[in-house]
Amino acid sequence: MIYEYNKIVVPLDGSPQAEQILDQLAFLGPAQTKSIVLVNAVVPSHYAVTTPQLGIPNIIAYMVAGANEYLSQVQEKLQTQGYTVSTHVMEDDAALSIVNLAKTEEANLIAMTTHGRSGLARLALGSITERVIHTATAPLLLVRPDVAPTTQLRRLLVPLDGSQLAEDALHHAVALAKMSGASILLMQATHELDAGNKRILFANEEEAEEAMSQWLQDADTYLQSIKHQLLGQDISVETSVNAGEPAAQISQIVADRAIDLVVMSTHGRTGVRRWMYGSVANKVLRGLTHPLLLIPSRAAAEDA
């Protein structure tokens, strides 16, 4: 399978915040190799509540015309940069429109900021982003609107939890590393147990500490095995085992190790030593100061 991003769906809602995702596309490769599909979703109900006298047909026509004009302006700007660009105005729920268009266009990436505005009431794009995360089958490049553009990839972080589902992200990270010359940092975070859980699971503190030590050792052994699998790929690979809450550890490593992009799966394994990626991904997204590439796990894609 070839892991490349040559057809990218970019949802825009007319706000400068949403448009900031466009500056993040440079690290994916030359513009001349990319086809961008711009999409804007119009939701007449937002206007119908405040201006019912216009009537739904007139409201729809007004909104569609405005959306088409806006997307055409963005299209022209991107075309001057070398991108191939098409536009779509959808008269439907925003999250549903984004996911369905990505499937119809056979896009291999959805790129969007985490917050913007939608509709007359300037509803939070954040809720739309979360719904797209849970339903999309294409990888998602997600960036907070206040994050500076990443123009070059030097180091990628790939959080793993020992499951095959989490490792789905690894193939994408390897492809990006080969394209950009970036190194890869593999990490695994092992939850530290609080006093209550220690009492439930272990007879005493010493037994709990021994178990924690073994979990950390197992995590290191696992990461070293993944690193060994990547030998011969001509990629620099490092590993890091951390004790603590996974999302917090991911954010800390991003800050401490000069990470340019986090690449992770949407789902992994759960349990005492594992974490649920859906929850971790959401937490990481809220606090991350760098782009996040989310790879829908195969299980999640099959459920969709």
| Shape label | elongated
- Per CATH, what is the topology of the largest domain? Rossmann fold
Number of domains: 2
CATH superfamily of the largest domain, called what?
A: HUPs
List its traits.
304 residues, alpha/beta, 10 strands, 44% helix, 19% strand, disordered C terminus
Would you kindly provide a written description of the structure presented here, covering whatever features stand out?
This protein is of the alpha/beta class. The chain has 2 domains: 7-143, Rossmann fold (3-Layer(aba) Sandwich), CATH 3.40.50.620; 155-303, HUPs (Rossmann fold, 3-Layer(aba) Sandwich). Helices cover 44% and strands 19% of the residues. The chain is built from 11 helices and 10 strands. A 10-stranded mixed β-sheet has the order 3-2-1-4-5-10-9-6-7-8, sandwiched between helices. Strand 9, helix 10 (277-287) and strand 10 form a beta-alpha-beta unit. Helix 4 (94-104) crosses helix 5 (125-135) and helix 9 crosses helix 10. The radius of gyration is 21 Å and the shape is elongated. Residues 118-125, 270-277 and 299-304 have low confidence and may be disordered.
A few lines on this structure:
This protein folds into two domains: 7-143, 3-Layer(aba) Sandwich (Rossmann fold), CATH 3.40.50; 155-303, Rossmann fold (3-Layer(aba) Sandwich). The protein is 44% helix and 19% strand. It has helices at residues 16-19, 44-50, 56-80, 94-104, 125-135, 164-180, 195-201, 205-229, 246-256, 277-287, 298-303; strands at 7-11, 35-41, 84-90, 109-113, 140-143, 155-159, 183-190, 237-243, 261-265, 292-295.
